């Protein structure tokens, strides 16, 4: 069977399915789920305000599951760009200063390479903090969600595995 004949049969079959599935809607054009024409560019969302001010002045955001990267609870707009030579996050959260700054220490997982070998300094693969850690923002959820993590109700990850 040639390709044009196959295409014709496929179109006819799709049309038949559409007509049988929704007889009252046979003449209507399907609407896009996002409410705009598919060819139209997406409208830019409103800019959201980041929560938090000076580091150390906010409560930590509770995590909902084990190994979840913590959310950054303070402002980072005026921080220097993270480069291979400089990472301003480590000036407070690094091993040398976290106690003096009363800041959470960089996680132990950041001191292992991809083979699990313990390193003296933070791994280069974990150097770009904002790749996993995001600043808390005041925004409603994009979709309804009833997710309850294994740490929300005081359960530990170990207790939920039993």
CATH domain fold name: Flavocytochrome C3, Chain A, domain 2
Number of domains: 1
- Oligomer state equals single chain
Helix content: 10-25%
Strand content: under 5%
Q: Note the overall shape.
A: elongated
- What Rg, in angstroms, do the CA atoms define? 25 Å
Structural class comes to mainly alpha
Largest sheet: none
Level-2 CATH architecture = Orthogonal Bundle
The CATH superfamily is known as: Flavocytochrome C3, Chain A
User: How many E strands?
Assistant: 0
CATH C-level class is Mainly Alpha
Question: What's the order of the H and E elements?
Answer: HHHH
Could you name the ranges where pLDDT drops below 50 across 5 or more consecutive residues?
155-162
Q: Cα distance, first to last residue?
A: 58 Å
Number of helical segments with 4 or more residues: 4
* Mean pLDDT rating: 78
